[in-house]
Amino acid sequence: MLSLFLILSAPVAPNLGDDSADAYRRRVTPIVQVAREASPAVVFIRNEGRQTVGRDWWGRLLEREFSGSGSGVVIHKDGFIITNYHVVDGAKKLSVTFDTQYDSTTYAAELVSAVKEEDLALLKIQGEREFPTIPLGTSRDLMLGETVIAIGNPYGQTHTVSQGIISGMHRNARISTAFGQLSFDDLIQTDASINPGNSGGPLLNINGDLIGINNAMNPNAQNIGFAIPVDHVKKVLEERMLAPDSAPTWLGFEVVGEDHIQIGKIVDGSPAEIAGLRTGDCIVAVGPTAVTTREEYKMARVGLSPRRDVELRVERAGNTKIVRLAPWDKYDGAIYEHIGLKVKTVETPSQSYIKISEVRPGGPANELGLLPNDVIDTVRPLNGARTRPLRILSRELFANLMTEIEPGTKLQLDVYRDVNGNGRYEEEELHRGSLTIR
Questions:
Q1: Among 358, 349, 361, 369, which residue's Cα sits nearest to residue 415?
Q2: Is 139 within a domain?
Q3: Which of 38, 70, 127, 378 might form a disulfide with 199, Cβ 3.0–4.6 angstroms?
Q4: Distance CA 86, CA 72 (A)
């Protein structure tokens, strides 16, 4: 009878005498070392959600529940994870687990930022400890034939390690997902096994540095997998995923400076003004995280949640103050900042639309004469690239439009108003006016 033994902790050379110990050490190849060092920072991601599949005869949305899984890699000790967007697309609930020999806890996670067209997403683990990370390398000096290691969770086989080489660079590929197709260029090609479930996991060089995020395989071929180069990942992180517009929350102020993070412009009526922050305050900590540079501030800032208040520690006139801030979600913030409105989405069996819930005094919408309970039907930029009327079906759609349009653009709005107070918005009560995006 054969017995199989699984070692559940980091292996050490057993005390079997000098010859046996030497033989064991010779088995610890560079690939074994990379697997040991990187595995504690690789996570298994489980995604649960609902997907819209159409409408029924009465116009009601039809949805189906789904679940999926993939991999991710921790890149910051506070629990920030990089993965593929298609791993978390449509998620209502996200959970992550580590290799149980390092951490047996199942953690909830939140999607804090994503760029769909780049197939990249940034998650935040909801856990109060420092997490192991994988160092970010570079993809500038990759070599054909260079040894690489992939770690992931193919077909649910958690924390699987595969070895290969870089077999091509600057490759183009199309990825089919449950939510459509994505096209990419400039990918790394490898013959290390990249199977369903490996998506979002790390591709590592022989030094254990992250050189790519695995995101695709060619289903019609053997041993052809693809990864997003890490230099491109870093660029997307810096320019888009850590940008204030990409954060899930809105605080209502701008920051200036690189090494001393000072508060610049504060929006009237925003969380920052309500909390008592002032222009010129120097931010030294966001929650428990000390910040001294803009990069540290961006990372701490993007992890905030609109469902949880946060304490900011600021220096003002030589004194330290702790200010408690209640962040809004980014959709409310974008609309409020650019045109001075809060809106809510109203859904009926036949349609959906947005209704104004609050108007900021002195803002563009207030100057136009808009009022709470007005219904915004369509908007049309009067200058700029987009000039066709757009029907506004949701708060999220309206907010995204606000961030796309350049400040200074004139925006025409068609608005219905219940002028008789009878709860009916008649067509003859349509009001049309224009305001300027700020």
A1: 369
A2: no
A3: 70
A4: 12
Q: What is the distance between the alpha carbons of residues 188 and 231, in angstroms, rounded to a whole number?
A: 11
Largest CA distance in the chain: 94
Find the mean pLDDT for residues 411-438.
Answer: 75
Contact in structure between 89 and 148 (CB atoms under 8 Å): no
Q: What is d(CA 438, CA 334) in angstroms, rounded to the nearest whole number?
A: 11
Residues with catalytic function: 86, 119, 199
* Residue for token pair 């479930």: 197
Q: Which of 204, 238, 272 represents a domain boundary (last residue)? A: 238
Write out the residue range of the structural domain in which residue 111 sits: 39-125
Residues 183 and 116: their CA atoms lie apart, in Å, by: 11
CB 213 within 8 A of CB 134: no
Structural domain includes residue 33: no
Task: Work out the average pLDDT over 299-315.
Answer: 89
At 56-80, the pLDDT tens digits run 666 666 777 778 889 999 999 989 9
Residue 138 is predicted with a pLDDT of 96
C-alpha count within 13 angstroms, C-beta hemisphere, residue 207: 8
Domain check: are 424 and 380 in the same one? yes
- Ramachandran quadrant class, 2 (left: phi over 0; alpha: psi -120 to 50; beta: rest): beta
430 shares a domain with 335: yes
